[in-house]
Amino acid sequence: MNTKQPMSLTGRVILGMVTGILTGFFIQSFLADVSFVHEYLVNGLFEVGGQIFISSLQMLVVPLIFVSLVCGTSSLQDITTLGRMGGKTLGFYLVTTAVAITLALTMGTLFQPGAGADLTAAASFQSAEAPSLGQVIINMFPKNPIASMAQGNTLQIIVFAILFGIAISAAGEAGKRIANVFSDLNEVIMKLVALLMNIAPFGVFFLMAKLFSGLGLGAIWSLGGYFLVLTGTLLLHGFVTYGVLLKGLTGLNPVIFLRKMEDAIMFAFSTASSNATIPVTLETVKNRLGVKNRVASFTVPLGATVNMDGTAIMQGVATAFIAQAFNIDLTMGDYLAVILTATLASVGTAGVPGVGLIMLAMVLNQVGLPLEGIALIMGVDRLLDMIRTAVNITGDSAASVIVANSEGALDKERFNDPLAGEKEEEVHFVPAEENK
Ligand code: ASP
């Protein structure tokens, strides 16, 4: 009998990540001039493996959001629950984003990372206009749900799925039959998520090895102050703000919460995309943290688009940094404009890599700071993007637990059980007839 315990998925993903980072550094330090390595490994195997991994995660996002949210909405006993839950979730997201950016502006002003910085911008940057609130709301409503799905427009898919779910619960017997189909589909898609999570150690290895073999760390030294203040604020928000909110509003232990977030945090870190991480965040929130599908299927995809606390923090620190580097004083009104624009910009933008910089351009425009400032910080943005994406999805998950707790939709036993969710991550290939 084999008594050896297999390594947990988290352990394997950590292993993939660490070996990937080390491999990347090794290539950068010792094999930088070997064209064979770059051609066949870095831009060959690592690039192909990493991109396939990200595409497979993205492949799940649209069907997963649609199916799980239709299931969640159609199982609600009472439609008014939806309005209450929606109000709480949006309120929570807006308040935490505003807290995040205020914290960032305070830290940026206190530690003055850009003071005395003698930096010259190497490139220019084009900005888009910040969307108006009206436009953000209009854009949430789909004209054509198939087009919304084809474009992966999360907010529009959410609106359509909610309406579809409501119609199912109002459609009597026919609705029940369709609800059963969706419930079965949901099981199957969650198995697909588990399947992909099991190949993640390789995917994460490829992504990290590719990234770190070309990541210029020199820029971090010259922007050390910015890097440190931003990372410190991100960690402060990730550990303290969410920890206090979780403890204060639910009485649950924040350490258990963070430990269970490990997998999702690593996925967010390696993909730098809240959107691509949705399948893993949803799996973690439901199976490990014990949030019922009717809450998680709504809060997680909504959060991935609307709630980006880490990104908001970057915008706060970056604005302070750029203002200091260019010797421009910001007024109280400017600070308020930064908070409002950053919050609004984060609502209408999907969580994909690097989008924070585009939002930053809108913020800088709003307060009249030079867009060249963005070129200053671009060199270190990739690594910071990875960290802030991890904070973004931690915020979505904390909100899911808090809202679920207030709605009686949290399985506290599951939350406190260290092994919860491990069974769901297993994938066995059993022929259909034996699987009954
Ligand atoms: N990459 C971030 C996310 O997906 C967004 C950003 O800050 O660029 O959440």
UniProtKB/TrEMBL annotation:
Protein name: Cation:dicarboxylase symporter family transporter
Keyword Transmembrane: yes
Gene Ontology terms, MF aspect: symporter activity
Keywords on record: Cell membrane, Membrane, Symport, Transmembrane, Transmembrane helix, Transport
Superkingdom classification of source: Bacteria
One Gene Ontology cellular component: plasma membrane
Bilayer-crossing regions: 12-32, 52-71, 92-111, 154-171, 192-213, 219-244, 335-352
Keyword Cytoplasm: no
Pfam families: SDF (PF00375)
Subcellular location: Cell membrane
Family annotation (InterPro entries): Na-dicarboxylate_symporter (IPR001991), Na:dicarbo_symporter_sf (IPR036458)
